[in-house]
Amino acid sequence: MTSPTIAIVEDEIAIAENYRDALRRTGYQVNLYHTRPEALAAFQQRLPDLAVIDVGLGAEIEGGFDLCRELRAMAPTLPILFLTARDSELDIISGLRLGADDYLTKDISLPHMQARISALLRRVSIMQSQSEEGETLTQGDLTLDVSRLHCHWKGEPVDLTVTEFWIVHALAKRPGHVKSRSQLMEAARVVLDDNTITSHVKRIRRKFQTIDSSFDAIGTAYGMGYRWQV
Fold it and tell me: How many domains does the chain fold into?
């Protein structure tokens, strides 16, 4: 079986090579890119299995955000992580709004970073194995096709990232039951903090509300978590 390919887009060469060497020791194939145009040209030829992107790329202060937007348009379910020195809440929320699955800061340890990458890739592997079963979940106006990672609301497609898809799946699978943030993390098979889960849920709601302004199927159980309301 071919090892997953990870793309690292990082303008500081020494840091990029450090990440590359660590991930290669774990068994991944790793490609390095130092600018947004270089990475985008490569992605247009062949997509990686996962992308790790810095926010600031050389002269482009927010080049990583632009690249995430472009890559997400090309591949709606590709796992994307930001790995950056910028740790403000605004930057984190901006990254998640653009469709990133995770947002890490560069003070994170290499083992922790590798664990987050492994968790995202494991979700993809699980989804591929489940796709053979052709699982479809329907709750009222919601239809989730696990085999294709497609989500529809009232017949209209909703473009969800991998993380968002699993959060919706976890909520809709047991309508009325409150899922805590930690349970949603487990369902999404990723390690996130509470604020990040909250940001994901807000973004999911906005995506549904773009299609249906009256959408209110995701309810908040204050101090506890979220539920799918029927």
Answer: 2
Confidence at residue 32, expressed as pLDDT on a 0 to 100 scale: 95
pTM of the predicted model as reported, rounded to 2 decimal places:
0.65
DSSP assignment string, 20-81:
HHHHHHHT-EEEEE-SHHHHHHHHHH---SEEEE-S-BTTBTTHHHHHHHHHHHH-TT--EE
pLDDT one-digit tens code per residue, 155-196: 998 988 878 888 999 899 889 999 988 888 777 765 556 667
Residue 162 belongs to a domain with what CATH number?
1.10.10.10
Same domain, 108 and 194: no
**Cβ contacts of 189-193, under 8 Å, gap ≥ 24:** 189/119, 189/120, 189/122, 189/123, 189/126, 190/101, 190/102, 190/116, 190/119, 190/120, 190/123, 190/163, 191/115, 191/116, 191/119, 192/102, 192/163
pLDDT tens digits, one per residue of 107-145: 888 888 888 888 888 777 766 665 545 578 899 999 998
Check whether residue 122 and residue 141 sit in a common domain: no
Q: DSSP state, 138?
A: E
Write the DSSP string, 167-209: HHHHHHHSTT--B-HHHHHHHHTS---HHHHHHHHHHHHHHHH
**Domain region containing 92:** 5-127
Domain boundary among 127, 161, 196: 127
pLDDT in tens, 34-81: 999 999 999 999 999 999 999 889 889 889 999 998 998 888 778 899
